[in-house]
Amino acid sequence: MSAAEIHPAAVQSTLVPELVVGFDLDMTLIDSRPGIKAVWDLLAAETGVAIDTELVVSRLGPPLVWEMANWFPLEQVDAMVARYRELYPTYAITGADPLPGVAETLAAVRRLHGRTVVVSAKYTPSVKLHLDHLGLDVDEPVGDLHGAEKGIALREHSAGIYVGDHVADIDGARAAGAVAVSVATGPFTADELKAYGADVVLNDLTEFPAWLEDYVLEQRLDALMTSLTEHRKLLVAFSGGADSAFLLAAAARAIGPANVVAATAVSPSLPLAELEPAAAFADSLGVRHVTPPTHEMEREGYQANAGDRCYFCKAELVETLQPIADDFGIEAIATGTNADDAVAGFRPGIRAAHERGAITPLRDARLTKAEIREASRRWGLVTFDKPAAACLSSRIAYGIRITPRLLARVDRAEQVVRDHLTSYGVQNVRVRDLGDKASIEIDAGLLATVDAATLEELVRAEGFEAAAVDPRGFRSGAMNERLANPERYR
């Protein structure tokens, strides 16, 4: 495979199973009682049978055929079920509403790169109609399963968590070996659900995102620390950013600081302001810090600055660090690649490092950027809120040949902008070299409060003929937007 082929590394994590969360539907995700009652009222009117529809909707959960048998002779049940299902799409779907916290719950799973599956006793086509009507972002709808039978679908989809409102949902979670999370929004109280054996009981789904994020973070941190203890010694490629700083701290905790070496590569692409804080951080951990020079500028593929520039940079880094690791008797070189990087879709550098044997403990533990920052905060690391600081070459538009002069100019321009905005509490500053002009990106929240003309003048004074503040504000990977949509940025 050539370096010019741009795609993320295809290696998947084996340390932590993929996050898959299963949900019941009725009274867990949606309040379907008004619509269901309307259908039962129609059945009562059509048949003349006195059905206590309020009682029916107070005990949702078991299969429809069970409830139907409470009101009709056995020989009529199948026909009544069929009629109910005929009426359901017209009268029940629009009567259902999402329960509080549903949108936030599904979004929380997505943020953690997880998948969702709905496993319900409801007729499968009806499950799909409800989800589609309410626009609920669910990966897989499954119906016609109740109680322990739900474990079949949960196992099939590798769900590690199942959320429901009924004691039968706890049976389903148990059958799948999943964590049973109960919400007290259905026919059972929190005490009843707890007494039946739920692992976690919540009042409703508004409490679920916080629980999930904390639970998953603990699982992933445990996996990270376990994986790190498998190494007698470790060399960490330490840029000084939040990710590699957290990895360095985790390694020091797991195997002891004397067994960890931090290596910060020094080259024209490293912002000068990064080196001293990196050294201080490593010293605070009691970790040895080395600063080998790297020579990516001597690689034609790097200078050419095509879309695969990062491949050549990371290749140079790992190839430079390997002899250092050998000298220290270290068998593994670790990078701070995280789970978000792995799904970004444009990371040729990840592949270069993988091809050269570097390991990615954070990604393998499925730790996201947000989780790394939260764990860093809990550990008291000063880098927990450090702004992203990609290498200076990422500021040069693809196709413009990289030179030390261009990198130094960008570094100076960013520093003067940052210094000017210190009193504003600026976090993120980027000066992008677009060839014919500079694009200045700052935190979007500051755009309305700063004088753009002053920033543009400061940047021009550092050697740019023209400069303009980007009205969209700072965003990581802005240069990749130009690569993906070249016509838009001509």
TrEMBL record:
MF terms (GO), sorted A to Z: transferase activity
Record organism: Kribbella deserti
InterPro entries: HAD-like_sf (IPR036412), HAD_sf (IPR023214), LarE (IPR005232), Ni-pincer_cofactor_biosynth (IPR052188), PGP-like_dom2 (IPR023198), Rossmann-like_a/b/a_fold (IPR014729)
Superkingdom, natural source: Bacteria
SUPFAM superfamilies recorded: Adenine nucleotide alpha hydrolases-like, HAD-like
Protein name (database record): ATP-dependent sacrificial sulfur transferase LarE
Span of the signal peptide: none
Claim: Plastid is one of the keywords in the record: no
NCBIfam families xrefs: ATP-dependent sacrificial sulfur transferase LarE
Pfam families: HAD
Keywords: Transferase
